[in-house]
Amino acid sequence: MMSPRAGAPPPCPRAHSPNALAQLHAALAKSGLSTCSATPATAAAAARACTRLRDIRAGRAVHGASAKLALLSASTLLPNALLHLYASSPGEHHLHLARLLFDTMPDRDAASYNILLTALAARGHVAEALELFDEMPEPSVRSWTALIAGFAQSGRPADALRVFRDMELAGVAPNEVTIVAVFVACADVGDLETGRKVHAYARRRGYGKSNVLVCNAAIDMYVKCGCVDAARAVFDAMENGRTVVSWSAMICGHAMHGEGDKALELFAAMRGRGVPPNGVTFVGLLHACSHMGLVDQGRAFFQSMEKDHGIAPEIEHYGCMVDLLSRAGRLQEALEFINGMPMEPNSVVWGALLGGARLHMDVEVGEKAIRRLAVLDPGNDGYYVVLSNIYANAGRWEDVARVRRAMKLRGVKKTRGWSAISVGGAVHEFTAGDCAHPQVTAICETLDRLLGEARRRGYAPDTSVVLLDVDDGEKERVLARHSEKLAVAFGLMATPPGTTLRVMKNLRVCSDCHAMMKVISEIAGREIVVRDRNRFHCFKNGVCSCRDYW
């Protein structure tokens, strides 16, 4: 985004009416404000109302009329209100207008910088946001927070945490809003160490129990970092301050971690307290029923949404129902459910059906699902891999080759899988067959010893997940160096005995790694928490918290 040339006039929209005062009065009236004599304060109130109503056209009218009436130079009150209008409106064009207005403001205050900072960071303009931040005379805690929150909201959690560490080095104490933003970033990258440290600070400052937003964000952070027990401790300590968001986050957390029974118990307690559920609550309940195989109870929850609570099911709830039916092997019923949906099913819905087809080795249903997915999400390689696995398990190798050719023809490339583990504050990332880590030799030796012991305990490699046209020996060698296995082997080497290992993976854990993790948890006497693209897998004493692999 280019800054305007020096000395350029402010971008004032041309007034559509020759009577600027009448135009401003019309905007004031539309926003429910008094039509008294126009002043910078009343014009600023009108601009704020237009922002609240998301009426950019009326806001531009306020801007044009204010310029004609020479109201813009009295103070920063009105320009900041207009800056917020443009910065919060969707589209790069409006962000560009916000930058133009900012660059041509005769006077700027901290609020002016913070408004633009937030918008730039939230839309991923990292370099420009940092440059603007460096221009600030004295960044306040609100300025630091604007930058951190913007990066966290725009899917740049690593940038958010880097700025937070710079904030700590600068000696600026975070406030409640900063803490919430940092929790969001920690949840996205699975940075439990930073999350715990910030939560301890929040408790020392008295935010740990009294501030509902901080507590809710802490619950979400702990859940997504694989510490559902810590999340539950925060929830239990909230006592009477819980909101529907608190209850729903905890219900979803238990469901994500395969603790469906706890999710259902918590919902019963929620109803006993008279707290009405929302749509998120039912997503958690349906997930819980799906992983526990409770088809009838899940169906009852789904039907009660509108009937008992006035909540219209959204496509996510329909996707949960398809997942519930598909996991239970009711694939034809799931197909009928999809055909009866009141909205067009999306790729998540068809993907749930494909997952059920893989679980129950139903080639016909898998082919039906992939035909729809090829149209809805043609670039997603994961669906083709699942169909290939279905064919491979059925011994249909010609069809496996056909799927591979179709992927090549359509330009679909297999996403490279990676797994990450945090040790001593540093994140170590591994890819399949990775030889780049400085301790790779020791890691592979550790992994080979684990594989040998696992075989003695009955583990047998599941070569069906390797779609390469090679012999079984080579397939086993490929499986032995999957990224999550490498990450766990390194974690066992680099942490004291008894330490829980927490691994993040960008794709689904394959069935072979899932089986191997169960055995490793028993061999090493460790709890291993793997967060993949779909869910959490908590391995302990040779058992996974999930009822089934899929």
From TrEMBL:
<feature type="repeat" description="PPR">
    <location>
        <begin position="140"/>
        <end position="174"/>
    </location>
</feature>
<feature type="domain" description="DYW">
    <location>
        <begin position="458"/>
        <end position="550"/>
    </location>
</feature>
<keyword id="KW-0677">Repeat</keyword>
<dbReference type="Pfam" id="PF01535">
    <property type="entry name" value="PPR"/>
</dbReference>
<dbReference type="Pfam" id="PF14432">
    <property type="entry name" value="DYW_deaminase"/>
</dbReference>
<dbReference type="Pfam" id="PF12854">
    <property type="entry name" value="PPR_1"/>
</dbReference>
<feature type="repeat" description="PPR">
    <location>
        <begin position="109"/>
        <end position="139"/>
    </location>
</feature>
<dbReference type="InterPro" id="IPR046960">
    <property type="entry name" value="PPR_At4g14850-like_plant"/>
</dbReference>
<dbReference type="Pfam" id="PF20431">
    <property type="entry name" value="E_motif"/>
</dbReference>
<protein>
    <recommendedName>
        <fullName>DYW domain-containing protein</fullName>
    </recommendedName>
</protein>
<dbReference type="Pfam" id="PF13041">
    <property type="entry name" value="PPR_2"/>
</dbReference>
<keyword id="KW-0809">Transit peptide</keyword>
<feature type="repeat" description="PPR">
    <location>
        <begin position="243"/>
        <end position="277"/>
    </location>
</feature>
<dbReference type="InterPro" id="IPR032867">
    <property type="entry name" value="DYW_dom"/>
</dbReference>
<dbReference type="InterPro" id="IPR046848">
    <property type="entry name" value="E_motif"/>
</dbReference>
<dbReference type="InterPro" id="IPR011990">
    <property type="entry name" value="TPR-like_helical_dom_sf"/>
</dbReference>
<dbReference type="InterPro" id="IPR002885">
    <property type="entry name" value="PPR_rpt"/>
</dbReference>
